[in-house]
Specification:
Layout (H helix, E strand, L loop, with lengths): L11 E4 L5 H11 L3 E6 L11 H4 L2 H6 L3 E5 L5 H12 L3 E4 L3 H7 L3 H7 L4 E6 L14 H8 L19 H24 L3 E6 H9 L1 H9 L16 E6 L2 E6 L3 H10 L14 H6 L1 H12 L4 H10 L4 E3 L3 H6 L1 H6 L4 E4 L3 E4 L25 H6 L5 H9 L4
Parallel strand pairs: 1-2, 1-4, 2-3, 4-5, 5-6
Antiparallel strand pairs: 7-8, 8-9, 10-11
Helix pairs in contact: 1-8, 7-9, 8-9
């Protein structure tokens, strides 16, 4: 397999995941070189992911690059037996079924641990592995609502608003990947694997971060603040002569820099803005005063002026503008992959950079079951045996 010089190339991952959160976790491992074997339901059994219009779409291709694909019917005894044989030589198993499903299939942590005590077994569920909601189906927006995230998103009085990306699915996948790596490091000391699990609800609550801490420490229940920062003021979206820009100047010394840069040096001397608490109480008035000044110039003029003055600010792009910004271009966040059917296209790259081990895209998401024979050959199945498994509907 290409990528044997990448940091995780010594690890093999059996990927039982579906939807987004689980595939995000295994994508992280695959992108850094792990041999990820995506185990899929044979198309004849009704695998939704096998539909070409889904598989060849932007989302599936982005989620499942750098993974090999094999098919296996885990509902059959023979399929389950093959999975456990594969697990004997694996380092990691990842799944995001509802908690009861893996037990019903016989591929849960305890079952895998019996054949491989060193296995690191990663799980994502909607609400956790135990508790009154454990067996409920969970999706990103449901967790956004239950965590409180939607209650702090949007304009004051607007009503709950979802975040404009699948932030919970993505965060849960990233957190699980991190947990798996921690468990692999711990295994180097103890020699033992372990079960690593998180949930969409837990990830959503962790993402709340300082908003959750406001409640836990001080008993404050945060509300919607729209485009304004909830605690650091002034920090918001401000109008310009040709649109809007973001300015964040909550610290006193930066507020003073901002005031001078926009030609309103006396703003910090106003008793209504003398402290962080007073600026919070009089936020709308202060933002209005700043907006009166920022309307006088175009957005890019202000970006240049304010950055020169040491005031954090920036343009507000759509997604296309973001990827076409010259600075974003040099960050390399849109690596190309080449697919045998779809040709060459770009996917979302890794935000983390390693100085000695540069990340590179190895291969695109390939067709379902493309590596079935190759993976099974690794545990002793020859071509005739694989053909017989296909005939019986096991793969």
């Amino acid at each position: 397999m290409p990528g044997n010089d990448l940091p995780l190339s010594r690890f093999r991952v059996l990927d039982l995941t579906r939807a987004r959160s689980g595939p995000t976790a295994t994508r992280q491992l695959g992108d850094w070189g792990a041999d990820v074997v995506k185990i899929e339901t044979p198309p004849a059994l009704g695998n939704v992911d096998a539909i070409p219009s889904v598989r060849h779409g932007f989302d599936f291709q982005n989620l499942h690059r750098n993974k090999r694909s094999m098919t296996l019917n885990l509902k059959s005894d023979e399929g389950r037996s093959i999975f456990l044989r594969l697990a004997e030589g694996a380092d990691v198993v990842v799944e995001n079924f509802r908690p009861a499903v893996k037990h019903r299939l016989g591929v849960d942590y305890e079952a895998v641990r019996k054949v491989n005590p060193g296995i690191v077994y990663g799980s994502i569920s909607g609400f956790g592995q135990t508790g009154p909601y454990a067996d409920r189906p969970g999706l990103d927006q449901i967790a956004q609502g239950m965590s409180g995230l939607m209650s702090i998103t949007g304009l004051p009085g607007q009503g709950p608003v979802r975040v404009g990306t699948a932030i919970v699915d993505t965060s849960a996948g990233m957190l699980l990947a991190q947990g798996i790596l921690v468990a692999l490091l711990e295994r180097e000391v103890s020699g033992q694997g372990q079960w690593v699990h998180t949930s969409l609800l837990e990830a959503a609550i962790q993402v709340l971060d300082f908003q959750a801490a406001r409640y836990l420490k001080d008993g404050q229940v945060p509300g919607q603040a729209g485009n304004s920062h909830p605690t650091e003021i002034p920090a918001s979206v401000f109008p310009t002569a040709d649109g809007y820009i973001n300015i964040q100047a909550g610290n006193q010394h930066i507020f003073e820099r901002l005031s001078r840069a926009i030609g309103a040096p006396d703003l910090p001397k106003d008793p209504a803005y003398a402290s962080k608490e007073l600026r919070s109480r009089n936020r709308d008035r202060l933002h209005g005063a700043i907006g009166e000044r920022t309307r006088m110039r175009k957005s890019l003029d202000w970006v240049e002026i304010l950055n020169e003055a040491g005031v954090p600010c920036g343009p507000i792009y759509d997604v296309g503008q973001a990827f076409n910004d010259p600075h974003v271009k040099q960050l390399g966040l849109d690596p190309a992959v080449t697919h045998p059917t779809l040709g060459t296209f770009r996917v979302v790259g890794q935000a983390t950079k390693l100085a000695r081990t540069p990340h590179r895209m190895r291969f695109a998401c390939l067709e379902i079951g493309e590596h079935t024979a190759e993976v099974l050959a690794g545990i002793g199945y020859d071509a005739a045996a694989v053909a017989a498994l296909r005939e019986r509907g096991v793969v």
